[in-house]
Amino acid sequence: xxxxxxxxxxxxxxxxxxxxxxxxxxxxxxxxxxxxxxxxxxxxxxxxxxxxxxxxxxxxxxxxxxxxxxxxxxxxxxxxxxxxxxxxxxxxxxxxxxxxxxxxxxxxxxxxxxxxxxxxxxxxxxxxxxxxxxxxxxxxxxxxxxxxxxxxxxxxxxxxxxxxxxxxxxxxxxxxxxxxxxxxxxxxxxxxxxxxxxxxxxxxxxxxxxxxxxxxxxxxxxxxxxxxxxxxxxxxxxxxxxxxxxxxxxxxxxxxxxxxxxxxxxxxxxxxxxxxxxxxxxxxxxxxxxxxxxxxxxxxxxxxxxxxxxxxxxxxxxxxxxxxxxxxxxxxxxxxxxxxxxxxxxxxxxxxxxxxxxxxxxxxxxxxxxxxxxxxxxxxxxxxxxxxxxxxxxxxxxxxxxxxxxxxxxxxxxxxxxxxxxxx
Length: 424
Fold this sequence. Notes:
Elements: H1 10-22, E1 29-34, H2 38-55, H3 72-88, E2 93-94, E3 100-107, H4 111-126, H5 138-146, H6 150-156, E4 169-177, E5 180-188, E6 199-200, E7 203-204, H7 210-222, E8 226-231, E9 239-253, H8 262-274, E10 279-287, H9 292-301, E11 304-311, H10 319-326, E12 332-337, E13 350-363, E14 366-376, H11 382-387, E15 393-394, H12 397-401, E16 406-415
Parallel strand pairs: 1-2, 1-3, 9-16
Antiparallel strand pairs: 3-4, 5-9, 5-10, 6-7, 8-9, 11-14, 11-16, 12-13, 12-15, 13-14
Helix pairs in contact: 1-3, 2-4, 2-5
């Protein structure tokens, strides 16, 4: 076609390799993809019609060599992948299944000029019908040339094509990577820290969040600009998460650094833990997308264990109160209307939840408080189970004891989800 001779030479490939390395790309596999100028398709058809006219009477296979059956881009990839591999990283793999897609868009100054005959041909065939201003597309080339015979072609196009007066250059090189998923478990030690950025009417309610304390290190390590956070449930700002922590995962969008090792993940984990005392992470690892369903399943179906510091306003906590709570028949089935405190973000509904295990203990040398330990279904509002939320949760600690009850502090002690796998 007279266009891509330079495309397999070192100056072209050096520029592509330089663009990859200057972007900080670090990966184990690459998939180069070349996007040809539209006029390259026209030139290919021009050559085919020329060969058909000259040799078609005694060389039948020419009929089977239509341009749409000859993949120039695949040929370029086959020729150039080895050289690109040597220039970027000899240890890497280059092929159709590479994780990093390298989109190479050449620039050819005469592309529009060489497409003008096709534009005129399409307009003539439209016969006054409306059409988009950009009518010469790759799809239009295929659609029109498949139905075009030799006479029509030779009336509109030059055949064989003329020798190009300008070279095709490397226009742009765009690198993109499929998302990477990094999972782990976090403990939250602050009662003034939200799980995700808490912003109302463009005003931040908390200075930081669990998500931000972790994501800034992930983005830095993977040289990415965006990531999405998910967790197995959420705790209120004033609730701590203790024990082994709550499972979480980050979907890292278009990371540039994707070569991972156990040591690198350990470095990431240590960096998070040494730069803050508000949270602690463990079991940080790369996971497969197919495993993310386990996180969602745990959010909706797994049990959780809580520790609540409770009071009986206006009265001392007696051993009889503790005995009453410890002698309840389990499980306790609750009917919980959407709590008043979350009505602004959750629909009004009555949800059935269960208290699976429950025990209470007196606090030594303090007759005004007691500790309540409960294992509940996922999605149980524990604060409302204690004080009743003006009767919206039934039964509750207040109705069980027959006196007012309230909660001073709440901790998540366990999220019963064995994911991601525990690391040694």
